[in-house]
Write a structure and sequence with these properties.
By secondary structure, the chain is of the alpha/beta class. The chain contains 10 helices and 6 strands. Its EC number is 3.2.2.27. This is Type-4 uracil-DNA glycosylase. InterPro entries: UDG_Type-4/5 (IPR051536), Ura-DNA_glyco_family4 (IPR005273), Uracil-DNA_glycosylase-like (IPR005122), Uracil-DNA_glycosylase-like_sf (IPR036895).
Length: 249
Amino acid sequence: MAETTYQGLIEDLENYLLYQRDEGVQRLEVDRAVLEELAREPEPETPEVVVVEAAPIPDDFDSLEAIAAHVSTCTNCELCQTRNATVPGEGNGDSPAIMFIGEGPGADEDAQGRPFVGKAGQLLDKMIEAMGYAREEIYIANVVKCRPPGNRKPVREEMDLCLPYLRQQIGLIRPKIIVGLGGTALEGLLGRPVAISRMRGVWQEYAGIKLMPTFHPSYLLRDPTKKKDAWADLKLVLAELGRVPPPRT
């Protein structure tokens, strides 16, 4: 029983910290007594860090396939050291109505080399279907193409080194609308920290393309009460495209 209770506390703490991150909080005050208690636990060994020198990314890719091939051999940041597979993106690359952009691959995506295939991806599929589209009709990508260890938030340097791929993907794909999933995706696209709870539902612009910020599906799994807000954002996207949600069956 004690072990289960302890595990539950850890999960609650993790969910709380993830919620604060999604809200744009970058610093939390921690009681000194808590820090002293945590200090009693043995610290994990720090793995040896290999310094990676960034190489220039070509700015003239002529296809999504060429980008994916370059991504697969990219060693421009430390994420290359722990990845199993790169995740460049997938879907309709020929002027789709919508391009969804998330934060980065998780464990399932890192294993399969495909974006949004875990629990958050399953929810995203339902959101896409509710809008009247099939997954194959839109395009899905992330700000970073390799999984950050432990699904942590990618740091600014990692995003900056990977963003040239995404920028060129957007230029080749030419989506009518971009939907930014979560604060990190918006931070990567707009180049500044954002609070997604205040920005969601308010049109932005990226490279001359309308950009709709909304919650990341993983956040909606942690707080299902926000699903109605996300759906309201997606209905704004449909309205901009001159469409209405199909009737539910």
